[in-house]
Design goal:
Two copies of one chain form a homodimer. Chain A is α/β, with parallel strands linked by helices. Helices cover 42% and strands 21% of the residues of chain A.
Chain lengths: 415, 415
């Protein structure tokens, strides 16, 4: 019978082994994982077909079915992503600081793996491979609890990963797949704080809230992205409109899309027609404040709830402000700590914005759509944190490590 | 009527103000806090007297009364500690990494305050001033929930801190004192995850467990310190005995004292008599494994519970091992992730120990008693973390910050 506790114990045991593997061995094993996925492509697609059939029987939405589907091209992409992770710098064993104390003790802070990470996610089989590769690269064992809709796909992918572990003489516990979809195992997993060091949930707000409220293990939280664009009085209108349209329109369903436009009254006076045109041309619905309402065709009056909303659709809230300070005040009130952007040519104003706004990503004259681990050069991304503890913003492999103190002496004792 | 939610809202509001104070202003305000404590010494001692009277009426232990007591000397020490914190490097606004992407975006990781930190602690009034100063230095607002036994002392210290804030035009909410000792406020505080970013509990294991299990806010955990000393076969016996006696005897009641001696069989063969003498001379009770039991006078046979125990007294568990690997295995099984020490002259063995053991502090040829923020050069210490998330080991001001991404562009949008 499946036991989540036994699985977690195996992961904990394997974590000691994985934590001291050499950089070369991890790299070789990751490349073997990519090759194994390519070799076993047919089996993986067959198992994915089982999930797809069940999904249709259970009348899942087209969007969900699309995310669930694996094709030869998608498997190629997954394998390439693993190779890309393999080629990154090894994040373990780096000396981050070093100093000597007066008594001769040498102190170092050295990066180490976190230990055992549990990933709880919905029905995207690519997360199984991505998360496993990122955690392994950082010397951690991982427990993968995917959505039940992707169970057959996840098990098939897991078998390929295990094949590579085996070829390199590493315990399978290093990548532990929860093979029984019963929800009770998740509840039990969240209590295993002696075995698991970190929980990363990925999915809707409901899942993240359930995990956060029921876990005895630290949780990386990412609730929502209510990203703001502030168009300052000293901004370049062309940059402003490009960044507005790119942020709202390019892919409205993702967390780094814009949800609110905050705009200085001088810019409203001079350029609101162009701004309104650019949004309306792209079929964006507008929720406007009283002062700007009449500048739009068919805008609705924005409510407090609108400024709090993550639309994830072609909708935007608009707020006119009299000053930079009022813009900052609005953003601080409604921020989700994800990403905020200012467009300005005034360097002093840009500096003040950077100083006043402590969201996880603060941008000057660039699209919020760059707020993503891949785009910011972290390589693959395991998730994004909007709570400030441990990691803040997009998380790459480095976020899956911590630092220990190493103290080198010659017999020193304390007086 | 006292409302913890209102207090937390004031702290949140003040946190925006404190987060962008200049380094100079924070330094000046901290020095003013130290001066205000000295000026108000008499009032503080009078209020402390009220707490001491109540403590005697309530028959608190002598040790607790001693920790509660404030004297002119202790107030001088508290003021000096604040001045020491004032003089440290400012941890906010530092650029930790910076790089440019191919599309011309400049990316920086910049240190920022965490926001609002709540400190929950027992009846040590010095913690009120220390914690307030550390959090303020790192640009955070703090909520101070001290033990009810120290209430009058804490309020009096708080008044001095507020006086300094006021002199510098800073909101009192930056150092928010919970002035009503009713336990229900703590329960409510732990639910305020929209207002508070981090909880740091300091006190007994019961308090820490209660906070961890009931908080919706991330908690820095420090359960216990079961610190191990491993005397390797290639060790210098004089260093080994010095480090053993210092670690066990100098101050047995603290978390960085030794609790278990792991010793290689070759060293038992050659030196067990000297080792036993050194412990017995210092009145240390011994819980020995089967193999070493007969080498001690009056030792008891060690149980599994002994290897798991934080004695906090003149008691030690002893375990003979046949090899380095067996020593590591024993330590990994019983570690509390606090501090482990190896004594060895063999550099390869030292390196292997450092690599295999991922406790928060790993030491070679030095006493475990150095595992402390002050001793390791961090300046004052807000606490110690034995969970790996966010901070690991002794925590100074830097641990009270996080990092945001700052992205500087020139109109870049995503293709």
């Amino acid at each position: 019978m499946f036991s989540i506790k036994r699985l977690a114990e195996q992961a904990k045991q394997a974590s000691f082994e994985v934590s001291s593997l050499s950089a070369e061995k991890k790299q070789r094993t990751l490349n073997d994982m990519a090759n194994a996925l390519r070799e076993n492509q047919l089996t993986i697609i067959q198992q994915n077909e089982v999930d797809l059939c069940n999904a249709k029987d259970n009348q899942l939405s087209d969007a969900m079915i699309d995310r669930l589907r694996l094709t030869p091209d998608r498997i190629k992409d997954i394998a390439q992503a693993i190779e890309q992770i393999a080629s990154q710098d090894d994040p373990v064993g780096k000396i981050k600081h070093a100093y000597q104390l007066e008594n001769g003790l040498n102190v170092q802070k050295v990066s180490i793996p976190l230990g055992v990470i549990a990933m709880i996610y919905e029905s995207r089989p690519n997360v199984t491979a991505d998360a496993a590769a990122l955690c392994f690269k950082a010397g951690n064992a991982i427990i993968l609890k995917g959505g039940k809709e992707a169970l057959h796909s996840n098990i098939a992918i897991g078998k390929s990963l295990h094949q590579a572990l085996k070829e390199n003489g590493i315990s399978e516990g290093a990548i532990a797949i929860v093979s029984d979809p019963d929800r009770k195992h998740m509840a039990e997993l969240l209590q295993l704080n002696q075995l698991v060091d970190l929980i990363i949930p990925r999915g809707g707000e409901g899942l993240i809230r359930y995990v956060s409220e029921n876990s005895r293990i630290p949780v990386i939280q990412h609730y929502k992205g209510v990203c703001h664009l502030y168009i300052d009085k000293d901004s370049d209108i062309n940059k402003a409109i490009n960044i507005l349209v790119n942020g709202k329109v390019q892919r409205p369903g993702v967390c780094n899309a814009l949800e609110t436009l905050v705009i200085h009254k001088d810019m409203v006076e001079k350029h609101i027609k162009e701004i309104a045109d650019s949004l309306e041309k792209n079929h964006v619905s507008i929720h406007a404040c009283e002062k700007t309402l009449n500048h739009f065709n068919n805008a609705k009056l924005a409510t407090d709830a609108d400024y709090d909303a993550e639309y994830l659709a072609l909708e935007i809230a608009v707020k006119q402000v009299d000053s930079f300070d009022e813009a900052v005040e609005h953003i601080l009130k409604y921020t989700s700590n994800h990403t905020e952007v200012i467009v300005t040519e005034n360097e002093k104003t840009a500096s003040r914005f950077i100083k006043k706004i402590n969201s996880s990503v603060v941008m000057v004259n660039a699209s919020s759509r760059f707020s993503d681990g891949g785009q910011l050069g972290l390589g693959a991304e395991i998730g994004i944190s909007t709570s400030k503890l441990h990691a803040y913003g997009p998380m790459g492999v480095e976020s899956l490590t911590t630092e220990k103190f190493v103290v080198l002496g010659d017999g020193q004792i304390r007086e």
